[in-house]
Specification:
Order of helices and strands: HEEEEEEHH
Shape: elongated
Radius of gyration: 19 Å
Mean pLDDT: 87
Low-confidence stretches: none
Largest sheet: 4 strands, antiparallel
Oligomer: single chain
Number of helices: 3
């Protein structure tokens, strides 16, 4: 999978951007391949902010050369980290003796789509 180009920024730069974004911590901020634009994340949600913290941008960043969606790659990375942090002892696991595939589902019991998924699986 193609990765984003590395952009070198100092921890002080990240802290300065975080200080300008209400509710942000330095760990929530990371450089993007676009100078002056930083990723601000909360959980697996991503928005972009300008270095001065005055503007936020909602949307995905694509690398034009290969049409790679850098934002979706980052979301996938964050989701996997969040799921990995949940211990199996906190999960309800339905498993056959010889599973060919694994699916991880987060369910909202009030969601009609979730109920339909459970009826079908």
């Amino acid at each position: 999978m193609p990765q984003a180009e590395a952009v070198a920024v100092t921890p002080a730069e990240l802290a300065a951007v975080a200080a300008r974004v209400p509710g942000a911590k330095p760990d929530d901020i990371r450089a993007t391949p676009i100078p002056g634009i930083y990723e601000f994340r909360q959980g697996a949600e991503i928005v972009y902010v300008t270095a001065d913290g005055r503007f936020g941008i909602s949307g995905d960043i694509y690398r034009v050369a290969d049409k790679h969606n850098l934002t979706e790659s980052r979301r996938r990375e964050l989701r996997l980290a969040l799921i990995s942090a949940i211990p199996e002892s906190s999960m309800v696991v339905f498993a056959p003796s010889a599973a060919k595939y694994t699916i991880t589902v987060f369910t909202d019991v009030d969601c009609a789509y979730c109920r339909a998924l459970h009826r079908q699986i």
